């Protein structure tokens, strides 16, 4: 399905955020986006490409062209789909059943862009059960040990294990630019402060010389008298 610019940015953001968080904690974890998963040997028609997915128990390197479950010995434990009006029925119907019954994923995250709706499903026994958000409206992923919450502009924010928001590439760039501007201003003010301190010291020295000169002149006039 064609994706909006916001959906493309969101997919890339979730993918990059999960790689950042999970790669720091796990050696055997693979994070992918829009990559085909083949799940029946010798049947190329049996494939699916979740918008973002995570598989534990396999090495993060090398990057795969495709992912074959029978070669890897694992299936994704977490999948995410960014839904539109056109894909909503498939994401909540055939894909839901495939992730639940065939791939047997542990969690399934859906963000519906048109409805601005965030949903998380977690396996309980043989079926997905809807997960309720916390008091702040965030959903906790047990599989990933991160939180997901709706946020205007970005659509969905990922929060790390420490509860801190994970920045996207635009925000990282803006923060870097802001930090560079702050550093430049700090250097400017430090240079100005140094120049001002030098000027004050110069004026103090001149004042001391002037006062000393006046003292010498006064003393000389008194002695002549």
Walk me through this protein's architecture.
The chain is of the alpha+beta class. It has 2 domains: about 160 residues, tt1808, chain A, CATH 3.90.1570.20; about 60 residues. Helices cover about 40% and strands about 25% of the residues. The chain contains 5 helices and 12 strands. Strands 1-4-6-7-8-9 form a 6-stranded mixed beta sheet. The chain has a 3-stranded mixed beta sheet with strand order 3-2-5. It has a 3-stranded antiparallel beta sheet with strand order 10-11-12. A hairpin with a 4-residue loop joins strand 7 and strand 8. The longest helix has about 55 residues.
Quick description:
This protein is an alpha+beta fold.
Task: Give me the side-by-side strand order of the main sheet.
Answer: 1-4-6-7-8-9
Question: What's the β-strand tally?
Answer: 12
In DSSP terms, counting alpha (H) and pi (I) runs of 4 or more, how many helices?
5
Rg on CA atoms, Å: 31 Å
What order do the helices and strands come in, and which of them pair?
Layout: H1 5-23, E1 29-32, E2 37-38, E3 47-48, E4 52-56, E5 67-68, H2 69-72, E6 78-83, H3 88-92, H4 94-102, E7 107-112, E8 117-124, E9 127-130, E10 139-141, E11 146-151, E12 155-159, H5 169-224
């Amino acid at each position: 399905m064609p994706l909006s610019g916001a959906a493309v940015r969101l997919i890339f953001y979730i993918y990059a955020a999960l790689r950042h968080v999970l790669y720091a904690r796990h050696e055997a974890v693979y994070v992918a986006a829009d990559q085909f998963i083949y799940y029946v040997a010798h049947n190329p028609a049996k494939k699916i490409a979740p918008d973002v997915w995570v598989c534990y128990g396999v090495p993060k390197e090398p990057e795969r062209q495709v992912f074959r479950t029978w070669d890897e010995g694992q299936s994704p434990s977490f999948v995410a789909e960014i839904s539109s009006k056109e894909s909503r029925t498939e994401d909540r119907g055939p894909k839901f059943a495939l992730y639940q019954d065939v791939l047997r994923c542990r969690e399934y995250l859906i963000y519906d862009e048109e409805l601005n709706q965030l949903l998380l499903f977690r396996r309980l026994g043989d079926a997905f059960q809807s997960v309720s958000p916390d008091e702040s409206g965030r959903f906790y992923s047990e599989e990933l040990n991160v939180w997901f919450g709706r946020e205007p502009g970005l659509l969905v924010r990922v929060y790390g294990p420490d509860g801190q928001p994970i920045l996207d590439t635009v925000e990282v760039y803006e923060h870097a630019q802001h930090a560079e501007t702050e550093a430049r201003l700090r250097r400017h003010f430090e240079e100005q402060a140094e120049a001002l301190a030098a000027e004050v010291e110069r004026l103090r020295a001149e004042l001391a010389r002037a006062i000393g000169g006046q003292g010498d002149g006064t003393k000389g006039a008194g002695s002549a008298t």
